[in-house]
Specification:
Layout (H helix, E strand, L loop, with lengths): L2 E5 L3 H12 L3 E6 L9 E5 L5 H7 L3 E6 L8 H19 L2 E6 L22 H18 L4 E6 L2 E3 L14 H5 L4 E3 L9 E3 H12 L8 E3 L8 H12 L6 E3 L2 H8 L3 H6 L4 H4 L7 H6 L7 H19 L1
Parallel strand pairs: 1-2, 1-4, 2-3, 4-5, 5-6, 6-10, 7-9, 8-11
Helix pairs in contact: 1-6, 2-3, 3-4, 7-12
């Protein structure tokens, strides 16, 4: 088995690192602060924008999995140096650069999102993500690096906490039978990408040369609205139906005055005010990973949150 470098240890990075260990690989995780060792995983404290040190850390690696992202409000300043460092390390070491992306780069579109759509985002975060991938793809086409991007819709599932739209703001209240609040239209169809499927796709494409040089959508179950997902979560939890309330625009406006996250969410409000549906059929036609059935996603998520809340009180 081989050495894999995982940049970042948030939900996606942690899931990817642990899956790689399960498959018998050696894993080195790079974060700014480092962490205590865990079985099969070496944690290294390193600023990933330091291309020389990152290159040394990645010597001998088969792949570099980019699972980190700056805070929303610092994307424009911090993504370019991070992306440049990742590409430099991939070029110097020959490791495949496996980039975890999202769907912001497409901007608002009518109809399902496919990988063939132009990267036509008008918002700052979408333009940044488009530029990051275009840089890596250009280097790939020049033969300087091997790169692939895996794009996911909103994360959902065990391990997804504060950043998810079906996570900390939703699951703990519904487990208590309380109403939940949501951004945008709670009845608009929306694609939710299950976190373990993200990790499985990242690991799969790292070893599939025919995947390299383009972007792929993570296998994702058919779209369900926030209300439908909440109803399923509540049914699994046995708490009965709970009310789903749309956050009023006035509340969001006031909150954005003090919350950088809420300010930045204005750019992607379109994803929740209308249908936002991902087409992952291209990936499914080419590779082995399939989306976990939604029933299994719901059960695992409720079980994980119950254990977490019991443990943390």
């Amino acid at each position: 088995m081989s050495l894999h470098i995982v940049i970042g240890f948030g939900p996606a990075g942690a899931a990817t690192a642990r899956l790689l260990v399960e498959q018998g690989h050696s894993v080195r995780v790079v974060t700014r602060s480092g962490r205590s060792p865990e079985p099969g995983i070496e944690h290294l404290a390193l600023d990933a924008t330091d291309s020389e040190r990152l290159t040394e850390a990645a010597r001998g690696a088969a792949a570099i999995h980019s699972c980190a992202a700056p805070p929303y409000h610092r994307w424009a300043d911090e993504w370019p140096p991070l992306a440049a460092s990742l590409c430099a390390a991939a070029e110097a070491t020959g490791a495949v650069l496996v980039m975890l992306g999202n769907l912001y780069a497409y901007g608002p579109v009518a109809g399902p999102l496919t990988e063939e759509l132009p990267l036509a985002a008008t918002g700052a975060k979408g333009r940044v993500r488009a530029a990051v991938w275009e840089q890596a793809r250009a280097l790939h086409e020049q033969g300087r690096i091997k790169a692939v991007e895996v794009r996911a819709s909103d994360f959902f599932g065990p391990g997804v906490t504060e950043g998810g739209h079906l996570a900390g703001r939703v699951v703990p209240p519904l487990l208590r039978g309380k109403p939940v609040s949501t951004l945008g239209d709670p009845d608009a169809p929306h694609s939710w990408t299950y976190l373990p499927d993200v990790a499985r796709a990242l690991v799969e494409v790292a070893g599939e040369e025919r995947a390299w040089g383009r972007a792929w959508h993570v296998p994702t179950e058919p779209a369900l609205s926030v209300r439908e997902m909440v109803d399923r979560l509540a049914a699994q939890a046995g708490t009965g139906p709970v009310a789903v309330r749309r956050l009023p625009s006035a509340v969001l406006a006031v909150g954005s005055l003090v919350s950088p996250l809420l300010r930045e969410l204005k750019e992607i409000r379109y994803q929740f005010d209308r249908p936002f549906v991902v087409d992952s059929s291209a990936y499914e036609a080419a590779f082995a990973v399939r989306a976990t059935p939604v029933e299994a996603q719901i059960k695992a998520t409720v079980d994980w949150w119950r254990e977490r809340l019991t443990t943390t009180g």
